[in-house]
Task: inverse folding
């Protein structure tokens, strides 16, 4: 009699991280309680004596309350960190694997170049999965003949690439990645004359494929239409004599679009793909990829099946989420493109009910998508199977779980924004959509607690309400420096025992950040880069996301959707690789950041005499400004020291100086209250 079979997946509790996390929560929580005890007692004194203006004190207090609220929500991620491991080599034979549909969405070949999109399509077709159980669908929201012709060319090349990848067991299913890396064929084939001969043929055909796409992409922007009929084309061999049993299905889809008719962007595109694929292949599972997120590990679908074919956990799992990782990151990750700050805390989600849907790189059961579109839209997005946290929230509230699988080798690789403008625009767009959910009936703190654990409701609430960071950011970037200039103390003296509580609350998260970065294997420079990104997001992205979400709630703002360009700018890429910030950014996003920087720099310089005159009474306020000025030195450099094209525009600098001067002049109003 056979013994028990080996497990397909293993869940390991990260005990050290768990102990460190909970110890930090406990100690930092005590310090926060001491901080608020000081605030309450001081507030009572302010009411009685009226010696200190009330308004600035209340603004700082509100800022600290919001910060504490978000900190408490954030701790839910760290409560029970676990790591998942899978063993795809233990899966049953190919004949027992279920069919899988792969969905890829694109919209504009002028912003999402055809070569990159087709490499994603080809990588999905070349996955290590039975070809007769794999179907790839490309949804073209622009209805572009450029994209349709590119798919036809990709099909021609795929008939050679897919068998070649399978025959020689290449580690890279993406042709562009394969030809730009060291040889990845199985070692038993390297040195073979047959392999060398076939590789030359494939290289030649790939060059011809690239040339064809280049010619086809002329005037790509003119090919995009917002008014076109539906098109569905199943790729087949034009002569009908090719052995297609070794080829996955490839289908081009362009849904109908008409002016004035809501199409709901990517969510609507995915809903169309679900309906079309249900008629053609109707696989019980589907995988969603962004058009620039190619398959890097051919075993990615098999890794997901390690959960779906496990009878112990499969009945509960709705989707398997892989991380978004990027191929174009510099060692100077100045724009936070690696998203490591997210993945460090996502380990805690598998200790609860699993991660939210990230918008791509996930494998989902088709039956879990059924009926989702009956929900009314939140803001400008329909309740779809992708991109919205609300989809994940609803499925989790119904009792389903998900898993976050982060293997050592990235299963998918995409292109991260390599300039500041794209990063800020992208983050603003995401934050706006999330904040719309926060202002709806699907707010996790309202919708979640009766349907799932309070810890998991807190996880959802944190990611959706993250834009609230803009409140304490502006409150603490404006009020303490102005009060320093006007001689209004807001914090205890250094000699006061309560100063220890404030110092601990400030330093403790910094030290915890160090621990997380080091344990994750990142360099210490990551500390600075991530702190800068958080400040830029809080001062620009979160501010406009919060404002626009409230305006939209009132019917005063029409939401829109803009693509992040995938076209590479050589000059911007050069600066990014050198760790130099590119400030060719919309003045609307950059001016608030520069204004706050100048304000803190000016008050710090002007307040130095007061610091020496009064001793330690204003040390905390001066240190806050000093900390902000030092961390954001790149803004000073961009405004006053750099002369290259990537510097901050002089017009933005002058406008920021004017705004900061106005804020300083209006600071006297704080004395009235």
Result:
């Amino acid at each position: 009699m056979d013994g028990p079979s080996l497990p397909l997946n293993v869940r390991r509790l990260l005990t050290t991280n768990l102990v460190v996390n909970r110890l930090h929560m406990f100690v930092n929580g005590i310090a926060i309680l001491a901080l608020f005890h000081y605030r309450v007692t001081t507030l009572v004194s302010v009411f009685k004596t009226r010696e200190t203006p009330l308004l600035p004190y209340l603004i700082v207090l509100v800022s600290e309350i919001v910060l504490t609220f978000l900190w408490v929500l954030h701790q839910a991620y760290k409560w029970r960190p676990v790591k998942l491991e899978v063993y795809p080599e233990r899966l049953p034979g190919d004949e027992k694997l279920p069919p899988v549909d792969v969905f890829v969405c694109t919209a504009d070949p002028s912003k999402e170049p055809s070569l990159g999109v087709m490499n994603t399509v080809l990588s999905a077709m070349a996955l290590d999965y039975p070809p007769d159980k794999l179907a790839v669908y490309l949804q073209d929201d622009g209805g572009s003949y450029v994209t349709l012709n590119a798919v036809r060319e990709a099909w021609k090349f795929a008939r050679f690439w897919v068998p070649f990848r399978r025959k020689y067991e290449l580690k890279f299913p993406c042709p562009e990645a394969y030809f730009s890396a060291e040889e990845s064929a199985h070692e038993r084939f390297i040195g073979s004359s047959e392999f060398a001969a076939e590789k030359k043929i494939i290289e030649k055909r790939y060059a011809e494929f690239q040339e064809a796409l280049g010619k086809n992409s002329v005037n790509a922007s003119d090919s995009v239409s917002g008014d076109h009929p539906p098109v569905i084309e199943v790729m087949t061999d034009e002569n009908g004599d090719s052995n297609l049993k070794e080829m996955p299905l490839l289908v081009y889809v362009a849904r109908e679009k008409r002016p004035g008719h809501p199409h709901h962007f990517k969510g609507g595109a995915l809903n169309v793909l679900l309906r079309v694929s249900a008629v053609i292949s109707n696989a019980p599972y589907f995988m969603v990829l962004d058009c620039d997120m190619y398959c890097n590990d051919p075993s990615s679908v098999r890794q997901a099946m390690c959960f779906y074919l496990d009878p112990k956990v499969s009945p509960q799992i709705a989707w398997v989420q892989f991380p978004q990782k990027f191929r174009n990151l510099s060692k100077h990750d100045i724009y936070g493109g690696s998203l490591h700050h997210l993945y460090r805390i996502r380990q805690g989600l598998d200790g609860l009910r699993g991660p939210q849907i990230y918008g791509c790189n996930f494998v989902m059961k088709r039956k879990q998508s059924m009926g989702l579109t009956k929900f009314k839209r939140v803001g400008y997005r329909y309740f779809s199977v992708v991109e919205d946290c609300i989809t994940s929230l609803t499925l989790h509230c119904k009792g389903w779980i998900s898993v976050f699988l982060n293997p050592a080798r990235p299963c998918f690789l995409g292109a991260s924004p390599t300039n500041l403008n794209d990063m800020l625009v992208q983050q603003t767009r995401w934050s706006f959509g999330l904040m719309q959910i926060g202002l709806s009936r699907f707010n996790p703190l309202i919708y979640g607690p009766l349907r799932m654990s309070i810890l998991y409701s807190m996880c959802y609430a944190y990611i959706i309400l993250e834009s609230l960071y803009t409140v304490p950011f502006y409150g603490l970037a404006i009020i303490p420096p102005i009060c320093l200039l006007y001689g209004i103390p807001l914090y205890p003296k250094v000699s006061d025992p309560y100063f220890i509580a404030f110092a601990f609350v400030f330093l403790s998260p910094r030290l915890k950040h160090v621990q997380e970065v080091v344990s994750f294997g990142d360099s210490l420079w990551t500390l600075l880069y991530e702190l800068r990104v958080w400040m830029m997001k809080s001062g620009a992205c979160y501010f406009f996301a919060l404002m626009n979400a409230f305006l939209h709630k009132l019917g005063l703002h029409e939401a829109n959707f803009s693509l992040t360009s995938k076209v590479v700018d050589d000059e911007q890429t050069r600066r990014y690789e050198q760790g130099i910030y590119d400030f060719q950014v919309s003045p609307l996003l950059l001016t608030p950041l520069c204004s706050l920087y100048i304000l803190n720099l000016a008050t710090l310089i002007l307040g130095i005499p007061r610091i020496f005159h009064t001793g330690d009474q204003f040390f905390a306020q001066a240190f806050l400004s000093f900390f902000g000025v030092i961390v954001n030195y790149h803004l000073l450099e961009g405004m006053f020291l750099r002369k290259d094209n990537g510097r901050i525009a002089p017009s933005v600098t002058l406008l920021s100086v004017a705004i900061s001067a106005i804020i300083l002049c209006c600071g006297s109003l704080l004395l009235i209250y």
